[in-house]
Amino acid sequence: MRTFPGKRTLAAGTNAADGATYEIALLADGVPPESLYPIDWPRALKSLDRLRADVVKFWGNGAESVQLQVDKQASLGSAWNGRIDGANDQGASIGKSWNQGILQWSAWAIPKGAANVENAQKYIAFMSRPEPQARFSELITYGPTNSLAFNHIPAERAKLLPTAPAVKGKQIVQDYTFWNATDGTGQTGLRRAVAEWERWVAAR
Fold this sequence. Notes:
Layout: E1 8-11, H1 21-28, H2 41-51, E2 55-59, H3 62-70, E3 76-77, H4 81-89, E4 102-103, H5 117-127, H6 130-139, H7 155-158, H8 165-168, E5 172-173, H9 176-180, H10 189-202
C-alpha cells in the first residue's frame, strides 16, 4: 500500500477462476507461483482481509473492472488485458504490468454426437493455424496460443499481447485442472470458491 497508494478493485470471489482473485491474494501474501495450487482458501481470504478496507468495489464483470479505473474510483486493480487496451483505445490511460499476471486460456471442443463433426474439425484446424490466430490478435489484444502466429504480428502489436515471448514467462498459467477437480468437500474448485466467498462476505 505504501508503494502504490489508493483504492483498489478486484473481482468478486463468486467469479471464481475467471477473476483470479484467490491467486492474486495468495501471491500478495508471498506464496510462490509454483505453490498456488491447490488454493489455500483460509490463507487467501486472510490476505483479502488486510486489503478489504481499501477495495472500493469487488467487480462483477469485465466492463466494471476498467470503468472503476477510468472513473478514477480505483487507482489499482485487476482486469483482463483486452478490456484495458479497449478502454485505452477509447481515450483512457490505464497502465498494466505483466509481472505475476494470470494467463488464462480457452479451447475449442466438439460435443459428442454433434452433427457436422468433420466440418467442425476443419474449422478448429483452421483456427489453430498461425495466420488466423494473428488476425484474431489484431482485433483484440488476447494472445495467440500458436507461437508461430507472432511471425505474422507486427512488433508494436506483439508488445500488447500476454503470450508474446518477451512477457509470457513473467506470468502464471492458471491451473484449470485444480479449478474443475472435486475436493474433499465434494465440490469443484469453482463451486468451492463461491461457497468460501459467501461465507467470508457474510462474516464481515
